[in-house]
Specification:
The complex is a heterodimer of chains A (115) and B (116). With 115 residues, chain A is mainly beta. In chain A, 0% of the residues lie in helices and 49% in strands. In chain A, strands 2, 4, 5, 6, 9, 10 and 11 form a 7-stranded mixed sheet that branches. Chain B is built from no helices and 12 strands. Classes of the chains: A mainly beta (115), B mainly beta (116).
Amino acid sequence: EAGVTQFPSHSVIEKGQTVTLRCDPISGHDNLYWYRRVMGKEIKFLLHFVKESKQDESGMPNNRFLAERTGGTYSTLKVQPAELEDSGVYFCASSHRTGGRGEQYFGPGTRLTVT
Amino acid sequence: AQSVTQLDSHVSVSEGTPVLLRCNYSSSYSPSLFWYVQHPNKGLQLLLKYTSAATLVKGINGFEAEFKKSETSFHLTKPSAHMSDAAEYFCVVSPRISFGNEKLTFGTGTRLTIIP
């Protein structure tokens, strides 16, 4: 069974540019999560999809971030325009069961550097 | 509300000696607790999880953790460290309630160094 995959593994962009991160969850997992770790800080929740619906987007920092999950399969996270403070590692995770009991499987992350 | 405190940002132990990584949690609900590990250039991997069954939880690679409600702790231990254990370890809490609130809350991580 393939794990959670993320693309690209590393992205370097200039301030003001746009970047789109992609996450492919484990096949059959309805739940998809985005998390972020900025330098020196803890990993923080961004948002949670159940299939194609946003269940919880309370962690999204501002309206420069847009997440989509069309068709309930892969998800994209777009940052437009990128700012210096957006630099960090963006993790995607997926899970099968709901209710806080299901293990979340994480991808390797995308390291975003904004210069 | 929930939070996790990892008491040590860095821990160094000699190969073959015991490992102790400390974690305290706070949760308004009866929580699920996890330890994840991240090796260099790899994704986060689940080591073990507590979800209300036995309070002593055994995980992969010889790690285990004990849930102590009275102390609100979930410390991670291993009897004998191996060089391959060098990594960053995260204590994580999730509210164990029904559908709609599964987001994980991470500690700041503990970097474990193994001395040959």
